[in-house]
Amino acid sequence: MGAMEPQQHDHATGTGSGTGPGPDHVALIQAEWRRERPDLDVSPQAVIGRLHRLAARLTGELCLVYSRYGLGEGEFDVLAALRRAGAPFERAPGELAAHTMVTTGAMTKRIDRLERAGLVTRRHAEDDRRGRVVALTDAGLRLIDEAFTAHMRNEHRLLSLLAPDEAAALESLLTTWQHRLDGAGPDAV
């Protein structure tokens, strides 16, 4: 194969022809399943297995940045949700749980840790004395602004591995799939 010829890719095995990399982990798993269960179509693993592995890898890459600021993924999410609320940078705990997709119990633990670190405060809601409001402290605001700037640099770095048209196509496909999956409901599977 000449130096300028494009490398061919076999989507069934995940392998490229020529001197490119051999089969990836998912392709090897698929080959084993095809050998052991030739009666089953394991082709969905080519997409879902790779997405699953990619999501785990991306989470690890993102958490490296969070940890530089003394934050875990959950704490970063809470601070970011408060920052996105705009001044005065506060939300009710239930609203925070909805914005970060965790249970209220998990949210309470995150808020406790952030409060001990001096990054958030809790107070009674003005319109409902039984309700609570969580707000960023000045230190919390400074930290999330700094951490979010680093986070966006990191996301740009990770996405730069794709050409702009590839990133746009991937965003479109993932958005379409997400909308369809959300609209399908649990009985659709």
Question: Would you spell out the secondary-structure blueprint of this structure?
Answer:
Elements: E1 9-10, E2 15-16, H1 25-36, H2 44-68, H3 73-84, E3 90-91, H4 93-100, H5 104-116, E4 120-124, E5 132-136, H6 138-159, H7 164-184
Antiparallel strand pairs: 1-2, 3-5, 4-5
Helix pairs in contact: 2-6, 3-4, 3-6, 4-5
Q: Can you walk me through this structure?
A:
The strands form two sheets. A three-stranded antiparallel beta sheet has the order 3-5-4. It has a two-stranded antiparallel sheet with strand order 1-2. The N terminus is likely disordered. It has a domain of 79 residues: Arc Repressor Mutant, subunit A. It is mainly alpha-helical and 189 residues long. It is 60% helix and 8% strand.
Distance between the termini: 44 Å
Percent helix, as a range, is: 55-70%
> Got a strand count?
5
Q: Looking at the structure, what is the overall shape?
A: elongated
How much of the polypeptide forms β-strand, as a percent range? 5-15%
| CATH architect. name of the domain at 70-148 | Orthogonal Bundle
Oligomer: single chain
CATH homologous superfamily designation of the domain at 70-148: Winged helix-like DNA-binding domain superfamily/Winged helix DNA-binding domain
Radius of gyration equals 22 Å
Low-confidence stretches: 1-19
Largest pleated sheet: 3 strands, antiparallel
H and E order: EEHHHEHHEEHH
- What is the strand arrangement across the widest sheet? 3-5-4
CATH topology of the domain at 70-148: Arc Repressor Mutant, subunit A
Structural class call reads: mainly alpha
- Overall residue-averaged pLDDT value: 86
Helix run count: 7
- So what's the CATH class of the domain at 70-148? Mainly Alpha
